[in-house]
Amino acid sequence: MKGWMIRAGSSGILFDDFVRESAVAIGWSKLGDIRAYTNKDELTQAYIENFDEKPGKRAGAVAMLDKFLNVIQKGDLLVSYNAELRKYLAAEDLGEFRYEEGLIGDYPQLRSFKLKGYINRDDLKQKTKNSLGSTLTLFTLNDETIHDLLAVLEGKTNTPTVIEDTEIEDDTAQLKDNTVDQSLELIKDKINKLSPDDMEELVATVLRAMGFKAKVSPKGADRNVDVFASPDGLGLTSPRKLPWTPNLI
Question: 0.70 cut: is pTM over it?
Answer without folding.
Answer: no
